[in-house]
Amino acid sequence: QEQLVESGGGLVQPGGSLRLSCAAASGFTLDYYVIGWFRQAPGKEREGISTIVTSDDSAYYADSVKGRFTISRDKFKNTVYLQMNSLKSEDTAVYYCATDPRLRYAPFDPYEYNYWGQGTQVTVSS
To answer: For residues 25 and 126, what is the distance between their CA atoms, to the nearest angstrom?
Structure first.
């Protein structure tokens, strides 16, 4: 049974934008969870890029994406978004969202999260 499903990836030119979505199943309400966005490039370790604490919608960003990416959520759609602007070739990766009901903060360590989506490919190339 899927709890999280990512979508919105694709091919985009450098400087372009994409918006990724992380949708939760109806039996898995994001209101009470922290959510993280992660990415994994070929041959690289999975890294945290943005997290949100849904209790107060506080958001955090890795230095590599700060000022370019924005995390947000729509409570009524049970969906978390990652708006990605000014994309660079080094942003190319498979992007994942993740959550864990145990967490009361939003760490950047992927090993803190136990519930993951299947990932969506983002390719930034001219």
So the answer is: 36
